[in-house]
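Data deposition worksheet. Section B asks for the primary sequence of the deposited chain exactly as it was used as input, without tags or linkers unless they were present during the calculation. Section C holds the resulting structure in token form. Section D is free text for depositor observations; keep each observation to a single sentence. Incomplete worksheets are returned to the depositor.
Section A, Depositor: J.P.
Section B:
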Amino acid sequence: MAQKPSIPKGTRDFSPNEMARRNYIFDTVKRVFQIYGFQQIETPAMENLSTLMGKYGEEGDKLLFKILNSGDYLSGVDSTELIQQNSQKLTTKISEKGLRYDLTVPFARYVVQYQNDLVFPFRRYQIQPVWRADRPQKGRYREFYQCDVDIIGSHSLLNEVELIQIVDQIYRNLGLRVILKMNNRKILAGIAETIGEADRIIDITVAIDKMDKIGIDKVNEELLLRGVSSEAILKLQPILNLSGDNIGKLSQIEQVIANSAIGMKGIDEMRTIFRYLASMNLESEIQLDLTLARGLNYYTGAIFEVKSKDVSIGSITGGGRYDDLTGIFGLPGVSGVGISFGADRIYDVMSQLDLFPKDTISAARVMFVNFGDKEEKYCLPILAALRREGISSEIYPDPDKMKKQMNYANRKGIKFVALAGESEIQEGMINLKNMESGEQQLLSAMDLVATLKG
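Section C:
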């Protein structure tokens, strides 16, 4: 007996109905990106490992999907290396490429590679899948889509403000209530400096970024394991538990890190952003969260994370400022800022809240019943005329029993059924049935077009 086919864990197939809903998300996001003047690019699914490795931190590197070299990939490995079973060392010899982990690092590579062809500041958006060798769980997949928007080649904080406006508009358009949490990596660097652990900023940010998932006690345990002193951890506690409004929190942290130049720069940046936002009519809640760290190493300024207010699923959008990501590819000093919308998590949230419009299913608007050869000949020109007018239409391919054809239309959610039997053909008309109400109308071809368009 043949084995039942399956797909890898952490990946999914999508039905026509699911694709219709996913495309609703993609189309909504894309429209907003374009309204703000961003241009679309695409990059390959696989990149050279030299492009990807070392850009996401130690934990990120472990989650990269690596691709075996073509042909005899063991030809360059001697028997001693095989016996030693050093997988990390072997990987560098048998694998030169990997699936992209995100869209930001490939974008930085793209900017450097095509720098002479781009107009800076370059405003780009990209909607493509990414892959991570993570443990599959609710809201976390090994293959998922990101919808990225970035502005590169400008230090202006107006760019951060525009991204916040984009977040607000997209989630308003999708009908989702969200909270946008913000912090600044310069403030985090100032905190690390103030508590005497400036050289452990990466260890500190990686640990406190897990606050929502594991709680403060576990974060403190991880900080100890990473070599942060008990004294420094003790100094960190009141900082991580600040309360009040955004401006109040900035004033409180300012008193703590007043002697840190980089920390004060981060505070100034956040005050500027909040001053811009105060004059805008945003629906989304904006919250300064000093426990937000964003684990990726390339962030250097403002950082963002968006969560649903109504569904517990983790972040559905995230991003931040990166001042020198292109420098690792030979183009230093090009600052950028961007955010990424997680389409798959947004889909899960909208599905749980039943927020998709009922008419998103991309079935035909009308189906012609097939009574036989004579009726086919009569219906086909009318069908072609509907399609020329942009009305999605189909004809049942076989002259089967009426019940079977009507059942087909019902199961596909087709709203109208067009019937042309002998009497309709003699009159040059079409009988149009509304499958929801049961109402029928006898219409000319011209009136049929007008009715279905309406």
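Section D:
The longest strand covers residues 122-131.
Residues 363-453 form a domain with the Rossmann fold fold (CATH 3.40.50.800).
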